[in-house]
Structures are given as structure tokens and as C-alpha cells.
Amino acid sequence: MNKLFVIKVGGNIIDDEAKLKVFLTSVASVKSHKIVVHGGGKIATEIGNKLNIESKYINGRRITDDDTIDLVTMVYGGLINKKIVAQLQSLNCNAIGLTGADANIIPAKKRAVKDVDFGWVGDIDNSKVKSENLKALLESNFTPILAPLTHDEQGHILNTNADTIASSIAVALSTYYDVRLIYCFEKKGVLENVEDDNSVINLINKEKYRQLLEEQKLFAGILPKIDNAFAAIDAGVHEVLIGDANDLIQNTTNNTIGTLITQ
Ligand SMILES: Nc1ncnc2c1ncn2[C@@H]1O[C@H](COP(=O)(O)OP(=O)(O)O)[C@@H](O)[C@H]1O
Ligand SMILES: CC(=O)N[C@@H](CCC(=O)OP(=O)(O)O)C(=O)O
């Protein structure tokens, strides 16, 4: 099986011009097949503030009302996606920018209202992901750049967390490729002490995860990231790494740095 890197990058890197440049230069230098999934929640919040669209999150998911879905469609599917594509093109990487609606890559279901109405938020059934369409692009030597948007097959765009999209894509493409999923962010990995970059935990299995939760060493965005990492591993993805966007090149070799997630 050929190697495929599914690389997720979040808002803290995208929002920093210098860090984004370093990251995209690394992406362009990866010789194997690769897909980039980007977030950008932080930027949507900043632009929303300027437009008087308030951002509300519950359990790490944005409440996405009518104005908000228009906002995130513009920011994720337009501004961020196309900036990344243009920069990769300047680095001789043949990037093609997509949402989950393009080529029907990620059909999703609008989240049912239980205690909370999340609005236009989409949940993915991994078996419905059109991995064969992504494979066709990869085999034509395109590098797909995916925005965190899906669709409901009834004409509506849905907002879906970028870590979840990366996990679902990695699972779906594991049928065809030996997949390494890499979550890139601004820290050296999952840390024993979030203030200390020298406290990287090299390996997290479910036992260690339970222990870290008990010790209350994990909070905020790292929690759904680790949950998505385990979901990928449990569904057959070969390797999942959480590491620094600056260390991407090294993390596409066997000599990885950061945190490896195992069963
Ligand atoms: N133990 C930990 N190790 C690393 N990061 C942690 C830890 N606990 C909490 N975090 C927080 O999780 C954040 C990463 O999640 P998030 O901001 O959602 O990233 P992204 O936007 O890149 O997906 C870090 O910036 C950090 O503040
Ligand atoms: C439903 C939901 O919460 N979607 C996310 C999608 C963006 C994202 O995941 O961005 P980061 O990776 O930068 O956090 C949001 O709108 O914030």
C-alpha cells in the first residue's frame, strides 16, 4: 500500500502568517500523497465580531445559526481555503481546494436537536465518505485541501469540526492507503504540563488517557483532538500523531517527535 499523510492544521497556525508559511513549505516538500484539512475557528470568530455575528460554542462545537453558516462558508470555504491553495501553488504543490460538498466528498446529517440546537452542524457517517473521489484526485497528483464544511445532500452546507473531518477522511482512505494522520498545532505534542513544552508525552494509549483525565492535565481543544485520534485508530488508521506544525517534515519520517496515539 502507498503511504498517505492526512495533515490537519488549526486556527492558531493559520492565523499566524510566519507559522503558516513554514507549515505550508513543509507540506509542499512531502513527496508522498497528502491531504490537508484546515480549521480556522479562531478567524471565523474574529471576522464574525466585525460583522456583529456572535460566536457561541457548546462542548467545543460552534452553534451555527443562519448568519453563522453564511459566515463560516465564506471564511472556511473562501478566504482560508483559497489562501492556502494559492500559497501552496506558489510552492509548486498542485493544491485543489474543496469543501465536503465538492465531488460529494463528505455527505453529512444535520445534528438532531436534543438538549441543544446546534443549527447547521453536520455529523459524518464514515462509511458515506466518497473516498474514491479523493483517491482519483490523489492519483492525478493533486493535493486536496479540505475546508471544515460538509453538506446534507438537500442543498445545505453544514459546519463540521476540522479534527473530526481529518479523522473521517483518514478512516475512509485507509481502504486504499497506509495512512498516517497528523494533527499539527502550536505545541510540541500533548504535554504533561501545558505550560512546559519540554513535557511532551511520547505515547498515549487509552489507559494513559484515563490517567491524564483523572489528573486533570488535559482541557479545552486537546480533548476532542485525542478523542478523534482514538476514533481513527479504532477504525483502522495505521498511525495518528499529535505534534508541532514546525515538526511536520520530521513527522513524515519514521523518526517522529510529538505524541503518538495507540490503542
Ligand atoms: N495537556 C495539554 N497539552 C497540549 N495542549 C493542551 C493540553 N491541555 C490543553 N491544551 C490546549 O489545547 C489546545 C489545542 O486545541 P485547539 O486550540 O482546539 O487546537 P486547533 O485549533 O489547532 O485544533 C492547545 O492550544 C492548548 O491550549
Ligand atoms: C462545528 C464546529 O465547531 N466547527 C468548527 C470548524 C472550524 C474548526 O474546527 O477550526 P479549528 O480546527 O481551528 O478549531 C468551528 O466552526 O469552529
From TrEMBL:
GO terms for cellular component: cytoplasm. It is found in: Cytoplasm. The record marks K8, K225 as: Transition state stabilizer. Signal peptide: none annotated. Its main location: cytoplasm. Residues 3-243 form the Aspartate/glutamate/uridylate kinase domain. Belongs to the acetylglutamate kinase family. ArgB subfamily. Catalyzes the ATP-dependent phosphorylation of N-acetyl-L-glutamate. This is Acetylglutamate kinase. It comes from Parafilimonas terrae. The gene is argB.
